[in-house]
Amino acid sequence: MNIKAFFLYTSILLACISCKQIPVQSATVSAPQWLAKTYKHVIMIEDEHMVKLGENYLVDIPIQEKPDSVYAFFLNADIPIERLKKPSNFYPSINEFILIVPDWKYYKIIAEEASKQGILIEPLVTNNYYHITRNGGEIKTDSTHISGNGHPYISYTEPEIPKGMLQVYYTDSYGSVCCPRDPKWDNKQDDASFIKEFEKNKKLKITDTYRQNNGKEGEHAIYYTLSGLTSLQRLSFILEKKSQGITNKEKKDIVFAPQIFTPHFVKIEKEGFRKMIKVN
């Protein structure tokens, strides 16, 4: 039985059985000022919400990112905490968030002790709380550890796609065709062949892709919604598309720094110069 399953199993049985408790041995400290008494609209991240290829992750939860809002996440998935802090990775437009993480080391000790003694031991609810702020390349982190009483009240939410927004997994941006010329234009013809080859190899279709003009010198963006694909297929597309222009791509090496990818939203423009045009 894995640790998460054990924790759930013991939580259910404890409603009917009187058991021994083993607390975390830590000094009592006052709660930091940033820790709220209540967190509403907490977003749960579980293993089912993420996929991994190599050291790259896709957290497939659509969130409308607002730089001036504070978000709260409960991490119940196997993702390195340090990777979530990087502003170029996990929901890059979110500048401040609370990360709540169960103390799995403590729960492992409880599970081992229960197995050794052949009894049911009640674990105290034990979490690590992180306050993470990101300002450009500067990252600040504070944390606190709570076991037993004193936890904030938490209620969860499932993010929804807001009206008038397009859910996007990958954006290809092209600059000016002339003044100065964006080097990406030299390989523009490779896009169609890449899509065709990817569809053939993966036995799928890339659909619901949109183009939007951003300037009068050919500047535009291509938005890939990757609708109908599984999370693993989406991550595979993102990685292969990012490596499309890398010189050693024939070796099929992913040479850019590992990332945590997340979907984002783009406002749908239905008229005017920046009207979005469906390309497939």
How does this model look, in words?
The chain has helices spanning 3-13, 81-85, 104-117, 190-202, 231-242, and strands spanning 20-22, 38-46, 50-53, 56-59, 70-76, 96-102, 121-123, 126-135, 138-147, 153-157, 165-168, 170-174, 209-213, 220-224, 260-261, 264-267, 277-278. It is built from five helices and 17 strands. The longest helix is centred in the middle third of the chain and has 14 residues, at 104-117. The chain is of the alpha/beta class. Residues 5-19 have low confidence and may be disordered. The chain is elongated, with a radius of gyration of 23 Å. The protein has a six-stranded mixed beta sheet with strand order 9-8-6-5-2-10. It has a four-stranded antiparallel beta sheet with strand order 12-14-13-17, with no helix packed on it. The chain has a three-stranded mixed beta sheet with strand order 3-4-15, covered by helices on one side. Strand 8 and strand 9 form a beta hairpin.
Low-confidence residue ranges: 5-19
Total helical segments: 5
Spatial separation of the terminal alpha carbons: 46 Å
Largest sheet, in brief, is: 6 strands, mixed
Based on secondary structure, the structural category is alpha/beta
Fraction of residues in β-strands:
25-35%
> What coarse outline follows from CA principal-axis ratios?
elongated
Q: Name the helix and strand elements from N-terminus to C-terminus, one letter apiece.
A: HEEEEEHEHEEEEEEHEEHEEE
Mean pLDDT across residues = 88
Radius of gyration: 23 Å
Helical fraction equals 10-25%
User: How many distinct beta strands?
Assistant: 17
Strand order of the largest sheet: 9-8-6-5-2-10
